[in-house]
Amino acid sequence: QFDKSICHALDKHVESRATFMGGNLRTYRYCDSIWTLNLRNTTFMNEEIETVLPMVKIVAYDMRMIEEPVEPITCQQCQ
Fold this sequence. Notes:
single chain, 1 helix, transcription
């Protein structure tokens, strides 16, 4: 439920975009179609601010690899 809710909130309620650049790739792993990246001293930027984070963990997966389809959810603000 958490994954569905956060994906919905990011898709429907967040208008700002952030990009990241720089940083040092400390470790990476690809297992069962899931990427895990650990970065250090990574610069994140959006329209207003730029900040350097000492440690970032990114977990990404391919939605096409999921066997069960993910049902879309709606929140009270979207109804």
